[in-house]
Amino acid sequence: MDAVAILVAAGRGSRAGDLHGVKQYAEIGGRSVLARAMQPFLAHPFVEAVQVVIHSDDADLYDQAIDGITSGKLLASITGGATRQQSVLAGLRAVERLAPRVVLIHDAARPFVALQDMESVRAALRDHIGAITAVPVVDTLKHGAAGSQTILGTVARENLWRAQTPQGFRYQDILQAHLQAAASGRDDFTDDASIAEAAGFSVALVEGSERNFKITTPDDFKRAERMIEMPAEFRTGTGFDVHKFDAGDHVWLCGVKVPHIATLSGHSDADVAMHALTDAIYGAIADGDIGAHFPPSDPQWKGAASYIFLEHARDRVKARGGKLINVDVTMMCEAPKIGPHRDAMRARLAEILEIDIDRVAVKATTTEQLGFPGRREGIAAMASATVRLG
Ligand code: MG
What we know:
The protein is of the alpha/beta class. It contains twelve helices and 18 strands. It has two domains: 227 residues, Spore Coat Polysaccharide Biosynthesis Protein SpsA, Chain A; 157 residues, CATH 3.30.1330.50. Helix 5 packs across helix 6 and helix 8 runs parallel beside helix 10.
């Protein structure tokens, strides 16, 4: 494997204050710091696997944070140690079986890593064993006296850099450096470059961005919120479907079994309303349609319950960081009567979509006995869905 990313999320940083809890799981702009930090690594093609190292108390928080992330690159989380150094070593050992050529180590509390940062680090690894992103120190540095606020002197800032992550290394070298550091009894290294330096390796500095800051204090949360504040984008999709009647005694509509003098024929359970709605949701995020995701030629979907399709569309929205705002379904038929089942249908759709029932509309109309629905040859359904992205 070429490159693996290790995200260190096992810390218990308390400087962010009680307001935010464990900071890497706190949300900024409706999404956890950790999920935001992971995203670029999951998205970049050269990173083939992502290993997150968490605290043993945080399994539930972690599960919530990754809800909706469906990337196959994400490995099962592992538990870290008492120090950052121990947690990174645990991560390095966990990915050993993948035999990565290089590893990128990143702090979960840095949610604004740019793809460019990752690429620069990786490029520098052609000539160096390690490479880190860093920013030049621009403020004048003062050395304060211990225990007082008196200046002892001014520190020359020339050639001083503030280290960031990602820090990239050739895998075997950083693993050996970590094992050496652990064997020497030191566990106070605060980044991986210093472990590589202690092992005598050449580590390159790659100029990073001030945007890639580490969230530490309540003010940092405010800064992060400001950075991601942008007008939300709303998208609407529509869907349409028709199924014809066949001999039978019930139909499935919006996930509810409705007695009828016929059934609807189709490859799945033929829930025409749920199909239209599923396509509306795919449409809102321009993500194909049911036929593309669940080909009718594939026998495994024969007789399938259609909520499988709707759940899939729901999860695709989540994976895009989106939120379903409302859905609206209209069925066209002379019979069966929809009114008596309307609230059961809304409740079922709300349950599947994990949204409040007041965001789910179900309606029906006849077509005045005109056309195929009017001739009772089948049922047509149309739907719309609105999704908020960003
Ligand atoms: Mg259909």
